[in-house]
Amino acid sequence: MHLFNDLTRTKEKLTPQVEGEYKIYVCGPTVYDFFHLGNARPFIVYDTLRRYLEYRGNKVLYVQNFTDIDDKVINRAKEENISCQELAEAMIAEYFTDADGLNIKRATVHPRATECMDDIIDMIRVLEDKGYTYVLDDGVYFETGKYADYGKLSKRDFAGQEEQERVKHNEAKRNPSDFVLWKFKKEGEPAWESPWGEGRPGWHIECSAMNKRFLGDTVDIHGGGQDLIFPHHENEIAQSEAANEKTFVRYWVHNGFVNVDNEKMAKSEGNFFTVRDLSKQYPYSVLRFFMLQAHYRMPINFTKELLDAAENGWKRIQNFASNLSFLLGQEEKTATIADADLSELCERTKQAFEEGMNDDLNTADAFAAVFSLVREVNSLLAGHTFSHKALREVLDITLLLLDVLGLDPLEKTEEEIPSDILQMAEERSLAKKARDFAKADRLREEIIKRGWRVDDTADGTRLTRSE
Ligand SMILES: [Zn+2]
Questions:
Q1: Statement: the pTM of the whole predicted model exceeds 0.85
Q2: How far does the centroid of ligand 1 lie from the alpha carbon of residue 366, in Å?
Q3: Which three-class secondary structure state does DSSP give residue 382?
Q4: Residues 225 and 371 in one domain
Q5: Alpha carbons 165 and 169: distance in angstroms, whole number
Q6: For residue 196, how far is its CA from the centre of ligand 1 (angstroms)?
Q7: Which of 379, 404, 429 is the last residue of a domain?
Q8: What separation in Å is there between the alpha carbon of 204 and the centre of ligand 1?
Q9: What's the CA-to-centroid distance between 234 and ligand 1, angstroms?
């Protein structure tokens, strides 16, 4: 596989430090509000990268943090008259509701800044010992001028940087790009003990500290949105490489923005759509499909029309899969097309899919391979019958490849099951638990009468619409 590395600005062959094992870090959300479609893009993109590496037989250690203390969290908590911790706790729960809906796998670890204070303080102490820090009236700063490679990711020319940037933060800074590692306590703000007095960490240091704690000095892949290249990722490099004296990240990957009328979707611009609100109009799977239809480095223009088109595209795949699954439930007829021909088609699809994914995670090409299978099989089915073995093979490859993209065309979302049916199923489970089998049977019959199948599986009770 090749991946575009922003450090070298070239597509590079991807290899891990340890054969068969990838260490990935992705900058996660600041938990003060619901996340919008633009925020969702990196979560979906890097989840897909992870899934593909796992599909290729690798083990993936995946870390995505929660920034649970910063100005936004403090201000919102004040507005809502609750503690920062209560706000963060609630928003992390909301994050998981949307992330689960979008089928984003749980990270190996989801560290929170407030749970990593010791790691953060340790790293600042190392930087201090090595002479990279200085103290001003409002906090401890990192002196970027002391780190020779500063700017290597963003390729900025700091010599010409505007004096304004210095003034914007603290006039006493030695270089305009110097940034705060530890902010001294302000009245009414949460604070932690440290060798420099009570305070809280700056934003950048938490990611460097968490990378070190959970993944070690060198990680294979670090991902985030393009807006994080500068200053966030540039500062992460400076902190980590100055402290650890090792290469921090081997492949830097950044995804493009989601735009609305050619402007980046952002809370500050007010032009955003939260995933939660959109999920009331479109299934989560449509939102994920929409996002992955584009190559991750390209900008996506968000319009309702494009979402509707994505919904139609996704429905075509869903109908295809449910048709195959329906045919498999029918009596087998004499096949009029050879199994070998269909096997060959499946193999070609898999190869085209992998070629797309191997080329810098080109999910657009990967979808094209799936759509081409849908088209070819549909046209074959118009004039031929398939053996069950062949139907199964086509369905299996479809499900396997889509699962790499985090999508399940046969998924039945809970919204599709009417609430009275769900309630009866719930009552039936309780009745079974209470060993009231007569009641459980009665409820089962009632559910069946209303057109639903009840299957007790190892994963719990499954409700499916009867054909
Ligand atoms: Zn970060």
A1: yes
A2: 29
A3: helix
A4: no
A5: 7
A6: 23
A7: 404
A8: 6
A9: 10
